[in-house]
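Example complex used in Figure S2.
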Amino acid sequence: MQQADYIIRGDYVLPMDESYSVIKDGAVAVKGEAIVDVGQYKDISKKYLSKKIIPGKNRAVLPGLINTHTHAAMVYFRGMADDLPLKEWLEKYIWPAESKWLSPEFVSDATELACLEMLKAGITTYSDMYFFEDASGNAAKKIGMRAVLGAGIVDFPTISGKNADEYLGNAEKFIEKWKGDELITPCIAPHSAYACGPETLKKIKKLADKHDVPIHIHLSETRWEVEDIQKKYGRRPIDHLYSLGLLYEKIVAVHCVWLDENEIQMLARHKVGVSHCIESNLKLGSGITPVPQMLRAGIKVAFGTDGAASNNDLNILSEMSTAAKVHKAVSNDPTVLDAKTALLMATRLGAEVLGLGKITGSLEKGKAADIVIMNLDKPHLTPLYDIYSHIAYSSMASDVESVFVNGKLVVVNRKPCSADEGEIISKAREWSRKIR
Amino acid sequence: MQQADYIIRGDYVLPMDESYSVIKDGAVAVKGEAIVDVGQYKDISKKYLSKKIIPGKNRAVLPGLINTHTHAAMVYFRGMADDLPLKEWLEKYIWPAESKWLSPEFVSDATELACLEMLKAGITTYSDMYFFEDASGNAAKKIGMRAVLGAGIVDFPTISGKNADEYLGNAEKFIEKWKGDELITPCIAPHSAYACGPETLKKIKKLADKHDVPIHIHLSETRWEVEDIQKKYGRRPIDHLYSLGLLYEKIVAVHCVWLDENEIQMLARHKVGVSHCIESNLKLGSGITPVPQMLRAGIKVAFGTDGAASNNDLNILSEMSTAAKVHKAVSNDPTVLDAKTALLMATRLGAEVLGLGKITGSLEKGKAADIVIMNLDKPHLTPLYDIYSHIAYSSMASDVESVFVNGKLVVVNRKPCSADEGEIISKAREWSRKIR
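Predicted assembly (872 residues):
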């Protein structure tokens, strides 16, 4: 018998491995930060001794969900301005609020709230693009969440810097500080090809190569963006990035709503991962991303929530459900983006898009124990014929009961283990009274 | 001082009256089955005495949500077959299961589960189209839910009848039995213009006129349906119903996905109410309903979940969120279907579409006390700048805390008052073991 720290049992264990196996009355054995075994409970219980056995009746055990794109701290602007054209929303509400309120303290407090919301929705890893990312990293670590944090870069002055060189200098300091952290992966996050000129993008590539970190960038989100890049550089956005050497496998391309067939092939050929933020794209009226076409071309597509100011939540389960439904209607084909594919995109593909495929995204021996326990004992999850279908189409964030990140219990019975929910909510209310 | 049975307090009371008022620190006074007053708590508390005061800190109080179309008992087939073309889904899975399992006992047990799910999602009134509606009515009354129940009519034999005349006879008996019930409104529910020929539809109209009851019908759901009706009758579906005298204000037209501009004008002119089931339409790949165009034409459009076999839940909050987002994207305009309009469709317009506009759908003096109390003290509802925006875009069914129907508390702290949740779930599991 070997010793395990936890044996997590479930009526349904979904490893999200290559064969989409469903282990009935399964279990996951965890030791330290890692998964040491996955299988049927009767086998696991013969091999491992553990004082902590988490019971699994009417429970599903699945990999932690991956949110491949957000601006976590924008959660403090949730619902501040809705149902508006993008330009008015940004210029009249979001930018003025950011330039007035952003600070390390704001980012720290707001990120705590965002992480709490995400963990309670079963998200164990998120990828962020914002400013004051040191504050964000401290907040994520405090609550115990895995994150890829992108130091934001634009060509114009903001509250966090004067110009591209200052942002780049900050980004390098940020990378050096966080590289090797067990939970935080630093990266570089140029806002977009319209907010960063070619010279800045080339410097970013150089810095990314130097430190071997990924680059996250908004790409082809709106029709306006495509026209703007064409006007400025005589090329569509994907071609423009290619010409600058920025189309390669460490790029996480966020949105990719407006692509032609050639661009889809280019993304596939260069192994660029795509973050699909359907609820944000729909709500801002940006358009509908050709996800089924991208998946057919072999592109890794995963889900992102975008910021809560444009969504208005940080909930990958609802992104799955919305995406699976919308792409069926748009394709006129109810077989596209089936429940299994949706959950794959929310887990393993999400981790691979972020460059964390060896660390998280599935329940497999040797990977980090990033695990979600879902309570199926609810009217809206009854009866149960197909567990994938229930997770993709019927479950809610509130069905997430307990969550592990890196072998540590961070949510138990919907309560955070290393944070005070009431205090986080109170702080958010205080900030919002000032911001209003 | 007058006596009230309940004073329901809320930081935000949303009456959903004509002026979209938001009453801060508001209250609703309830006596017997009815709302006797709505206003600020300080005024209500001076006018009414009540032993039962429901506290309102961090709570929103809103009218019960209206689900204008479902097949409640199909909840037992939830997730049995997904990601399939409509024809295969119906012919290989749903129809065989129905013909094998449907019975009054099945409908009774399944409807209890559906009602429990709906009440816990803040739905106080639903409109049903199915067979064995007596069983459905008994189940709805037992749990305390308001319902419009449509006795299903088709031209072919099913487990519940041999032919149209038998269904019509049963429908008349059903109407006579339930007419005048305080919670149940009987109606007639021809499946569609392709499943009911012109003679049947004319007889249905006559029966509806005789008893002054509404008619619910699936209409223009798929492109196939439009082509089929055109082939058979030389007219598009709306024109076909008009030619039979079935385009009038007591018709509830369900789906209306495939409409041309002329048909939109016809629906408006004849005051036909529309039930918009966006998640079902998306998931089955049926298409995208022209809702903004219908609203602009003055048509009353409300939300329906459709059956849980094609959705896969009975959740009007998520229909609101999905519809508000999808129509923005399809219209390329983020200002369409704003948060207020979405909540209006889910409440007052829903009641009006069902012919219950004088009884429910808003918190106004004299209307029945169909009331939802939502708990806003959650990370995903923090901070709060705009209550409409939170309900439309951020809330989940699990935020519904307590529910009144017709002056009676039917859900308290997410537990049903006159049903045993565990028993309802157990029964569903027993049935599903047989059905599987």
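Chain A touches chain B through 71 residues (CB under 8 Å). Chain A has a mean pLDDT of 97.
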